[in-house]
Amino acid sequence: QMADPFLYNTGERSHYGCLGHEAQIEYLKAYVCKPSFSTDKAVIVVHDVFGWQFPDIRYIVDLLAGHGYITICPDFFKGTKPWTSTDHWADFPDWMKNHDPMKVDKEADVVLKYLKEQCGAKKIGIVGFSWGGMAVHHLMLKNPQLTAGVSLYGIVRDSEERYNLLNPTFFIFGEKDHTISLDQVFLLEDKLKQYCKVPYKIKVYPGQVHGFAQLKPEDMKPDDKPYIEEARRDMIDWIKMFV
To answer: What whole-number distance in Å separates Cα of residue 149 and Cα of residue 139?
Structure first.
């Protein structure tokens, strides 16, 4: 029996009133939130296994829009069922086979085209959590149109090509994440030092488990709150520096 890698309880979420709206972009549904003023800067948010409708991820979209970015979270699962907290972990490997975070290139292109042609975006960053963090790492190796990326607790594991980042990328990890060991974090750091030609940053947040950074304020434990807030500020600072 595989241990539940998401140590926070996803069953009891406080209600979240979203600020944005849902849109259809070619064959993809997406959640879009825009700042109150016009801008040519945008951020794509890549959801975790719980999908594009999960309240925590919409909270992050709204947060980024509040910092002045056209922010969009497309359904990278293309209408298929996301993982839910009542699913059985024994089935997770099979589910992952049909939801490969390295197979997001087509969807990314659709969204980039929309942001450029329909929203007038000139600079576009990307942020992803867990499953989405893996997708971000992959896309930052493949898609030069993405000005900067932030991968939160998600890495491409099994490719020697995974260190040649095209644009500035920031990796955020929790110290107590049992899906990504600190050994893997140190290996990533070591290899990026050798191979990476663009700015990058790796940061580990003390005592934090997988999934820590997308909790809404009312769902945070007091001990974790400072680290969650710091990770979010760091994420936004990285985007502001480059996008």
So the answer is: 9
What is the full DSSP assignment across 179-233? SS-HHHHHHHHHHHHHH--S-EEEEEETTPPTTGGG--GGG--TTTHHHHHHHHH
Alpha carbon 170 to chain centroid, angstroms: 11
Residue at 189: amino acid letter? E
Please list, in sequence order, all residues whose beta carbon lies within 8 angstroms of the beta carbon of residue 144, skipping any fewer than 6 positions away: 166, 167
Mean pLDDT, residues 75-96 taken together: 91
| Average pLDDT value for residue range 186-214 | 94
- Give this prediction's pTM: 0.92
**CA atoms of 90 and 63, how far apart (whole Å):** 34
Q: Is CATH 3.40.50.1820 what the domain over 21-242 is classified as, yes or no?
A: yes
CB atoms within 10 A of CB 18: 14
CB burial class (10 A; 0-12, 13-18, 19+) of residue 21? Answer: exposed
> Which segment of 101-105, 145-149, 153-157 scores lowest on mean pLDDT?
153-157
Helix (H, G, I), strand (E, B) or coil at 136: helix
Supply the pLDDT for residue 1. Answer: 38
Q: Which residue ranges make up each domain of the chain?
A: 21-242
